[in-house]
Specification:
Elements: E1 2-7, H1 11-21, E2 26-32, H2 38-47, E3 50-51, H3 54-58, E4 65-68, H4 72-85, E5 89-91, H5 99-112, E6 116-118, H6 126-137, E7 143-151, H7 158-164, H8 167-170, H9 173-183, E8 187-195, H10 200-204, E9 210-217, E10 222-228, E11 236-243, E12 247-250, E13 259-262, E14 265-268, H11 275-278, H12 280-296, H13 304-323, E15 327-328
Parallel strand pairs: 1-2, 1-4, 2-3, 4-5, 5-6, 7-10
Antiparallel strand pairs: 7-11, 8-9, 8-15, 9-10, 11-12, 13-14
The protein binds nicotinamide-adenine-dinucleotide (NAD).
The site of nicotinamide-adenine-dinucleotide has 21 residues, from helix 1 and helix 4.
């Protein structure tokens, strides 16, 4: 049996815990979460894990691997402690809100030789995986440009916004990563603009709720990202890849496939209401891949270096918006 310790029993920690518990070879033996809540107690009860301090977990030789799903400002510290053990780690994105700390943590991890998988679950979504293969095969000719839409159904609580690091580092980081994953090449330049058009409280907190970001890849291919904190119909996650001989589209997933048709027209269901439902199979596949990394050393689709590169693009976007100019990614080191 593989013994895993989980850090954080919140929104995403619960998803990872249930996916880990569905793998027969895994036991969730320890949980670190200092805040008492119904969610924490329920997780302890259904997993049989014991509640422990992080330091006790990292010094326990019987624990085989770590899943870090605690708030972002804890990730770097836990990764540093994990690196000392050399055991496999899954860590949620982003690694830190300070880019210098992300780079330093990646350096420590590399030096320690610890296997680290980063929480870019979209890389495990069956449709995104298939799309990447289609692009790579070249069967539709060269991919020329991508248009991506990511809109939350509604803004998160203000307290979340205040500690999120902002729209680019928090939400758009998945799209930055997806761009690199689909095109399989690095981005060299970022032009971003943003505004607060949805909720003035987000602007008062120093963030934006709407952004347009244009990326140029090293071969010259272009990506247009559109990110927002609200969509009137629910969670909006669409993407279009324009190739020489075909256009690939990933649509929203409707809550049901049933279509009602009458004299007024055709009525389809709205999309599933949040990212946890939309990417449920990706989160499951992600934990299975983590298990494969622990037991067989299978390389994950998202590494620490992918975390660094996605965040480099987020930092470049922020700089571009602040200084109202295209930013060369090289400026970020
Ligand atoms: N990949 C994704 O799709 C995705 C989705 C959501 C969140 N996230 C990331 O996951 C992390 C957690 O987000 P969330 O939405 O689950 O937050 P959350 O606030 O719902 O949960 C965080 C949990 O961590 C606990 N916690 C607080 N301090 C802790 C500590 N020192 N040690 C251990 N646990 C501690 C809290 O009590 C809470 O239960 C964030 O970094 C976020 O960016 C990633």
């Amino acid at each position: 049996m593989v013994s895993i310790a989980l850090f954080g029993a919140g929104r995403i920690g619960q998803v990872h815990a249930d996916n880990l518990l569905s793998i027969p070879d895994i036991t969730l033996s320890a949980l670190a979460d200092p805040v008492a809540s119904e969610a924490r107690e329920s997780l302890l009860a259904r997993s049989g894990a014991s509640l422990r301090e992080p330091e006790a977990i990292f010094s326990d030789p019987d624990i085989d691997a770590y899943v870090i799903a605690s708030p972002t400002d804890t990730h770097a510290r836990f990764l540093h402690l994990a690196a000392r053990t050399g055991k496999p780690v899954f860590c949620e994105k982003p690694v830190s809100l300070e880019f210098a700390q992300v780079v330093e943590t990646a350096r420590i991890i590399q030096h320690a030789g610890s296997p680290v998988m980063l929480g870019f679950q979209r890389r495990y979504d069956p449709e995104f995986m298939q799309l990447r293969q289609s692009i790579a095969s070249g069967e539709a000719g060269r991919a020329q440009h991508i248009v991506m839409h990511t809109r939350d159904p509604a803004p998160p609580p203000l307290a979340y916004i205040q500690s999120s690091g902002g729209l680019f580092r928090d939400q758009a980081i998945h799209d930055f990563d997806m761009t690199r994953y689909l095109l399989d090449e690095e981005i060299v330049s970022v032009s971003a603009t943003g505004a607060c058009l949805i909720d003035p409280a987000i602007g008062a907190a120093g963030d934006i709720d709407t952004a347009m970001i244009t990326l140029r890849a090293s071969s010259g291919r272009l990506v247009q990202m559109i990110n927002a904190r609200h969509a009137a119909f629910g969670y909006d996650q669409r993407l279009e890849v324009v190739c020489e001989r075909a256009v690939f589209t990933i649509r929203n997933h409707p809550a049901t496939q049933i279509v009602r048709a009458d004299a007024q027209g055709f009525l389809t269901a709205p999309p599933v209401s949040n990212f946890i439902t939309r990417f449920a199979s990706a989160y499951r596949a992600e934990m299975k891949a983590f298990h494969a990394m622990i037991v067989s050393g299978v390389k994950p689709l998202a590494t620490m270096q992918d975390g660094v590169e996605a965040q480099r693009l987020a930092e470049a976007a922020l700089l571009s918006m602040q200084e109202n100019r295209p930013v060369s990614v090289r400026e970020l080191g």
